[in-house]
Fold each of these.
Amino acid sequence: MDGNEVTEAVGELPPLRRNRDFNLLWTGQATSMLGSQISAIAYPLLILATTGSAAQAGIVASAALVGTLLFLLPAGVIADRYPRKVVMVIASLIQMITGATVVPAVLSHHVYLAHLAAVGLIQGVASAYYAGASRGAVRRIVTTEQLPQAMAATQVRDRAATMLGPPLGGALLGFGRSLPFAVDSVSFGVIALAAAVLRKPLDPPVVPAREPLLRSVGKTIKFVAGEPLLRLFAIWAAVLNGVAFGVRLTIIVLARNRGATPVEIGTLFTISAACGLAGALLAVRLTKLAGPRLLMLICSWLAPACAAGMIFAPSVWVIAGLGGVTGFSIMPVNVILTARATRITPDHLQAQVGNTLQLCYQSFSSFSPAIFGALTDKLGAYPVITMATVIYAAIAIWLQFNRQVHQLNDTGTAKATGGNGREWTVRSSYRPRHATHRKGRAA
């Protein structure tokens, strides 16, 4: 059974852990994500050690981000038009080869900013293609009922890699300057191999007639803007991610004003990341227990409450605890919205819609740290965190009265458009806990 077919009852589905293709894809992406996090800390440390310039260290990361953002929309079109497995393999091999060129450069002591920036740019472009194709692949290899579990597993993977990657990168760099980049290159080879051996068909059964690229991009943007749930997801993710990324710098200033040491500040963010990992692990269970609507509203109101609490926090550890609650609460909402967005998107638009949503939330978060940093310098930490609290509260109020949020608990049937334009009747992923027999529960 693929993701476009009418799903069976949860009790009749094999556990997600027995889904060979999903586990292959998840493992390969986990390895690649860990490698990327390792090199993400190694690149700036290498450049700082070579040139001593923080500005040059930021250029490489910016080059990768620019490459991704510029190509997300066209890459989504390509990933939906051409065989997704081929796109995933080629994109991963390009990243592997370009990343491998850094190893001899480091070993021979010929490290040049232009070379590293070019590597970042090329890998950023390739990641846009891989991201689009992998989104479509997940929709084909995971049944509709198990999408929340799959999205939660993805969040767990990303959070774990974010926690483990930086310290591993620093340790590898200490053993040998070329090691982090060699490991990153190998990790891209692993995901290329994982994609190559997938068995299930990853492409839509019927692909619409091709049209000019710009017209396809325009239609996708119109589709996202016209679909209430996707529009909600785009706005929520853009604002929440932008504020969360931006206010990190302000929290560092606040913690330092409370007398926190660099080690304590680092621990503060580790606690937040660990709580986010716990939130991802428990997302599906919490959704079944409380229901998507109630859980989403609770989590949305926790964000402004915790931000306001940081203003009055007497110590860095209270700030860490409040940040942990925020990190924990965002994960279930992200899982709920990602699963629903994947479910209602036609198969032949999975890459395009997913990349469009990524462009929405990643664009703001790419420059919000500079905005929040400038505001913190000018106004101080308290007014900026107050501003973040107001933004979080505005989003919570908006969700409180949003019609799409109130429909999240619909336990009846819904229409999901398949890749060939047909409408399949699928069962809702939420069922009240008291109505679920123990034998029939999904693993």
Note: Residues 210-434 form a domain with the Growth Hormone; Chain: A; fold (CATH 1.20.1250.20).
Amino acid sequence: MAKGLYEEAIEKFGEAIELGKDNLVVRCVAELNMGVCYARLNNKEKAMEHNEKAIELVKMQKNLPAEEPEDEEEKERFYKNLFSHEVSVQAYFNKGIVMRAMDKLEESREIFDNLIKYVPWAFRVREPIFRMERFETIVAMVEKEKETIPGLIPVNYIEEQYRKLGYNKEEMDKDFKVVHPEQ
């Protein structure tokens, strides 16, 4: 039953894109929602395609370059400008989730790093969600690298992976605290 509803929603969002072809905001929101629907249908490739389109449309709206700049200061301006648009934050977040599902763990981790680092209002509202997803991605990296039982990974393996990826203790502790607030 839900499958049919998602397929119907995809059709309607496709119509919205066609009707609003001259309206970047309409197209942007419709692409984002199509990505969500495809993710719910477990079609990772189509979900990724529509998340990417939503991000591209935001870049067009904000006159941003297609690719992330190399220079650190320019990169910071690029992401802060990109993430000042709600749709791009959500599409970028969804892209990180889909990347992890596609076993593209390094790319997924980088997405959550950028969200934590550059989303200005995330510090109070969304940072815990981004940190939890980064933690889950790093745990998946450990599971892939070492022979462990999923869900039963020694903490020292996770700490070792954080260090190997270049995180300091403070960053690691912030992620751990979100996932295990009682500790």
Note: The radius of gyration is 18 Å.
